[in-house]
Amino acid sequence: SKVGYLLINERLKDYVPIILDEANYQMVVDGDVVLSITGTEEQNVLSQFIATQIEQNKLLEEFRNRPLDDRRNDSIKRMYRELDAPISIKTKEAQFKLLEKYPNYQATPLFFNLTLKEKGLKELTFIYSKLTGAGKDNTYADKILQRIELLQALEKGAVAPNFSLNTPEGETLSMHEIPGKVKIIDFWASWCYPCRKENPFMVKLYEKYHEKGLEIIGVSLDNDHKKWTAAIEKDGLPWIQISALKKWQCKSVKLYDVKSVPHTVILDGENRIIARNVRGEELEKLIAQILDAQ
After folding, report:
1. Can you list the alpha helix ranges (DSSP code H) found in the chain?
2. What pLDDT band is residue 274 in, cutting at 50, 70 and 90?
3. For FRET with 140, which of 2, 159, 184, 229 sits at 20 to 30 Å CA-CA?
């Protein structure tokens, strides 16, 4: 069956999936919240999954409707996280019960695809292991498996995926072939304020540990060569810089599951992953622990 998406909130770009077939569909709504869409056996299963999220969606909608200053307030954000925690546990338990009940429906992996990138390796492996028959033989189950394989490739101890990109001068460098006892792949961009703010710290870290074997590989998500090189010069970045100049369309961004910048990946001398997304004092402590001990 094909899948369509119903736009229910243009402002928030919220969509609800519908498994299309020759049938009459019924939709029950409460304001902007779709309580259910029924019509076929597959759609009825999907609606049961979506119903598990209603309480969580209402909390999210409440947060979204608050003034911008409230949404940026740390104490208010913390309050909503605390409210969400028990709801999240209850929601997941209900979803796993439905997974056990409907392992051979296309609707099951379709539902879990809606939040695919928010789930960790352990949870996705569990979900995929429960799928059977028609529930496993579809593109949505395939996407879950692909996501599992991607996250496995980024596990601690795994050999980091290799990639090659160009320096500002046009030289192509292979990440694996860049020497170093410890390597930091630093995903950043000239337009990224947190990246630029952290660069002075990274410069000090590089100066302190480069002679002991630290190498940094800056992978820029820029798409403008002049802005990229101007930022390198202004921030005084002495380490290797490479980029595809394609912003988020860079293949290495997808290889390393980079969802935001700055993002770091720490490798040993054999290109095995030591840690991911470690920054600041925690990063310096990790580098010191490795290189000061040698």
Report:
1. 41-51, 54-64, 68-72, 74-101, 107-113, 121-130, 139-153, 193-209, 225-235, 251-255, 280-291
2. very high
3. 159
